[in-house]
Amino acid sequence: ELPLTKEYLKSINKIYIIACGTAMHAGLSGKNTIEKLCRIPVEVDIASEFRYRDPIIDEKTLCIFISQSGETADTIAALKLSKEKGAKTLAITNVIGSSITREADYSIYTHAGPEIAVASTKAYTSQVVLINILAIYFAEILGSTPSSELTKLKKDIFNLPDKIEEALKSSEEIKNYAKNIYQEKDVFFLGRGIDYNTALEASLKLKEISYIHSEAYAAGELKHGPIALIENGISVISIITDKNLVEKTISNIQEVITRGAKTLVVTNQNLPANNFETIITVPDTDTLLSPILAIVP
Ligand code: BG6
To answer: Model-level pTM greater than 0.90?
Structure first.
């Protein structure tokens, strides 16, 4: 139902992904996968910034809008602006018939059922899945990634529900950890690469649900200022799922431990347990899909 031809996809020189909040964080995963599989540059923008800053858009731009509700005013305004400037527009939403679907050239649906909890795990995970499927579809049309790699990624997507079940088995450990930190005033989240995206979403949800102040930092950026805030007893939650970045992230965690931080690591890697106070393990999957599992705890 998405009539985007090879000719059209070859003609695009930029994709924008525009959204707010959790949906924007799902868009960050989209950037990773589309750039890797399709080799098209992708820019992710916050709708409330994008709409007021005269973005460079023309008919060679594809603009993708992600919105669970399909009703977020800034996202809809950004879509209208993109259309006026000649871009094709594609909406990713959960709500059939929502305002965004009436404005967009094309709409695809997460079919995640009604949104109930602020944690939004269902909205986020289904948006990340769908944008990965979209990237695979584009890559198939473009022939930009070997089909064996795409088939492997599809299998990994099909295995996600079982792996989420497995991730949920850590619920007792998670509860125990929560009991230890629920009175904290500040929590830091760290990650590199795709794990930084998960850190951003985790930090947003901690703020929205528990009213605990938190910050997410790209682990390598911590030393350029924010490390000054890491003092004795502060809680730092790190996410490590990209095997190529394990050592780099661990060395950043060591820096915060040296300053007296209490550390939790959410990981799918085999890490030396004695280095960190708490480790919560999530199942392994393709790195591109790892936010879907890492966000669960
Ligand atoms: C915010 C919510 O108001 O809207 C976030 O607090 C949400 O959780 C954001 O991600 C965007 O909503 P939507 O419906 O456009 O995805």
So the answer is: yes
